[in-house]
TrEMBL record:
InterPro entries found in the cross-reference section: CbiX-like, Sirohydro_Cobaltochel/CbiX
Keyword check for Protein biosynthesis: no
Alphabetical list of SUPFAM superfamilies matching this protein: Chelatase (SSF53800)
Lineage of the species this protein comes from: Bacteria, Pseudomonadati, Pseudomonadota, Gammaproteobacteria, Thiohalobacterales
Name listed for the protein in its UniProt record: Cobalamin biosynthesis protein CbiX
Keywords of this entry: Lyase, Metal-binding
GO molecular function term, any single one: lyase activity
Keyword Aminoacyl-tRNA synthetase in record: no
Length: 119
């Protein structure tokens, strides 16, 4: 089973974390059968953590976990912190393909989306 784990920073503001959870639910509904599981996790300040999110996917039968960073730029979190969190779980589960896809801000469609929002 292929799982999608959307990784956000996390916030002290509960409503911000709830926004990520709501977005995740919308993605889950849109994904159809592309993913057997779609969940979110947080780098800090909210639960579940990235390792806990990956653990949940594996325990639910995922043999592939796609980690999608919900970040707009390639700062320290995208370049080192998230890969560090993922690496530990990959070592724990060598038979599970756990991989990070490009962060949201790198998507070619972002400029068009921003123009749509500004119109």
């Amino acid at each position: 089973m292929k799982a999608l784990l959307i990784v956000a920073h996390g916030s002290r503001r509960a409503a911000s974390n709830d926004e990520v959870r709501e977005l995740t639910a919308r993605i889950r509904n849109l994904a159809g059968e592309r993913f057997g599981q779609v969940d979110c996790a947080f780098l800090e300040l909210a639960e579940p953590s990235i390792p806990d999110g990956i653990e949940c996917c594996v325990r639910n039968g995922a043999d592939e976990v796609v980690v999608l960073p919900y970040f707009l730029s390639a700062g320290r979190h995208v370049i080192s912190d998230i890969p560090g969190e993922v690496e530990g779980k990959q070592q724990e589960y060598p038979d599970v393909n756990i991989h990070i896809v490009p962060y949201l801000g790198s998507a070619e469609t972002i400029p068009e989306l921003m123009l749509q929002l500004a119109s």
